[in-house]
Fold this sequence. Notes:
The chain folds into 2 domains: 9-38 and 149-206, Endonuclease Iii, domain 2 (Orthogonal Bundle), CATH 1.10.1670.40; 45-143, Endonuclease III, domain 1. It has 13 helices and no strands. The protein has helices at 9-22, 24-33, 45-53, 59-71, 77-82, 85-90, 95-105, 111-114, 119-127, 134-143, 156-165, 174-181, 188-206.
Amino acid sequence: MVGRIIHSLDCVAEGAAWLAAQEPAFARALPLVGDLPLRREEDGFAALLRAIVGQQVSVASARAIWARLEAAGLTEAAAMALASDEDLRAVGLSRQKARYGRALAGAGIDFDGLRQRPDAEVVATLVAVPGIGVWTAEIYAMFALGRADVFAPGDLALQEAARVLFGLEKRPTEKGLRLMAEAWSPWRSVAARLLWAYYRVAKERDGVA
């Protein structure tokens, strides 16, 4: 069963109000972070390929590589499947990421069908592809598919934001944060947006680089 889908900023605001009513820490954080972003993107092959491109490189580097991929016409599955090693090296993909890109192109994922599948099935389908881990799959479900009740507890910024906001002695583990987030259902992806926003506020307040 597919749950609530976030289509607009009104959906995000509804989720934020629900979270603030349920959890005093979120109620304290919301005035500090302001309006939360929608952060929706188009789903499909390109969204996942962009996530692979961005792994373990700076934002600037990822943008530059993606721009070269677009210029070379390599952001569609058919083109990626036919690209040579030289083609992919020329746009800045490492050998490993070239392998991941080809694996994604050949995975035969029914992206239209994913829209109708439960969150757990979406994640399971995506992590079966080399180069796509749980974090990437959950981010795709949150922002490409708009799932309202998906969280990404492996994200270090979410872990650190939770540590500061909830006054924890140490940063929660992925498992620990996943358990914490159960209380934020059915709006866990809005809780993630709130925590990411709070992370930026906390960094500026504490002068963390």
